[in-house]
Prior knowledge:
By secondary structure, the chain is an alpha/beta fold. It is built from ten helices and twelve strands. 31% of the residues lie in helices and 25% in strands. The strands form two sheets. It has a ten-stranded mixed beta sheet with strand order 5-4-3-6-7-12-11-10-8-9. A two-stranded parallel ribbon has the order 1-2. The radius of gyration is 20 Å and the shape is globular. It binds acetyl coenzyme *A and L-homoserine (HSE). Residues 44-46, 75, 77-79, 107-111, 113, 117-120, 142-143, 192-193, 246, 249 line the site of acetyl coenzyme *A (ACO). Acetyl coenzyme *A (ACO) binds at residues 44-46, 75, 77-79, 107-111, 113, 117-120, 142-143, 192-193, 246, 249.
Amino acid sequence: MPIKVPDSLPAKEVLAAENIFVMDESVAYHQDIRPLRIAILNLMPEKETTETQLLRLIGNTPLQVEAVLIHPRTHTSKNTSADHLESFYKTFDDIKDDMYDGMIITGAPVEQLDFEEVNYWDELKEIMDWTVDNVTSTFHICWGAQAGLYHHFGVAKHPLREKIFGVFPHGISKPNVPLLRGFDEMFYVPQSRHTEVRREDIEKIPGVDIWSESEEAGVYIAASEDGKQIFVTGHSEYDPQTLKWEYDRDQAKGLRIDVPKNYYPNNDPSKLPVSTWRAHANLLFSNWLNYYVYQTTPYELGKASQFSLR
Ligand SMILES: CC(=O)SCCNC(=O)CCNC(=O)[C@H](O)C(C)(C)COP(=O)(O)OP(=O)(O)OC[C@H]1O[C@@H](n2cnc3c(N)ncnc32)[C@H](O)[C@@H]1OP(=O)(O)O
Ligand SMILES: N[C@@H](CCO)C(=O)O
């Protein structure tokens, strides 16, 4: 939450220069509060696991969050029961006349297909177009980030020679960005991908910046300058055991897979992994919810916001 101070207090400028969120009394006086409406487009195969991971993170805030789960109507899920989808999910058709404060578009294990080969691609394109006018900020994860960068900005994804698999050190590429407030200069994030988006491709796109990268794992966070579209290539939401589960799965299938990097104590897969990214994940999602959703979204959705971050 912001620090509320008198408009003319000298400390205000010092803190603002340090990227600390300070709010004028005049702005604070006018701020109204209501629950935030967040839509989660869950494209992951095991939807219950991903729901739990994401709700855990967006629940870690003093703000009330009303989450609505969405699945693609044009895809029949193999790994999540129809019963679960029927009970807890809506489709785009059910929500397209509404407006949302935030939306999360998850990853999906389809990254080795061309986008156009994904059977719900047309529906996803329609949803991504809709977010531009109907959602205050959209947070895209992993394949969802690749899909968003490709659809909105024509950024290609490229196959990697080796899967990027493990927990990698990441750093800040653009200082004083509200999404990165309070981040350590170096922080760890799980990555688990066969494909990548490249810095040089993103640098060519006017209005899109790279906010965080990893020497080994490449671009981590890219975003439109106004933060309306945020693209995150890693899986900060993963549970401590998720990479182990993926590793054991691939080993059991006889696939060639390296031990996930920087994950097991002494890189020994017989030992239990320890998470080193939970604090980062919580800060990333609470910064997004606070600065790009709550502080930016209009009190009456559809009307212009009174406030702006910058
Ligand atoms: C790059 C990223 O975004 S990483 C995020 C993705 N990570 C994960 O999904 C990790 C967990 N997933 C898994 O471990 C595996 O996908 C499993 C174990 C659940 C299933 O693996 P498999 O049996 O080998 O693959 P399966 O045939 O079920 O296909 C996986 C998914 O891709 C989907 N898929 C495959 N081809 C297509 C296609 N052309 N269009 C759309 N979806 C497709 C399948 O339908 C399935 O998703 P669903 O359960 O939502 O229907
Ligand atoms: N994280 C995914 C990558 C595949 O898209 C997995 O290992 O299943």
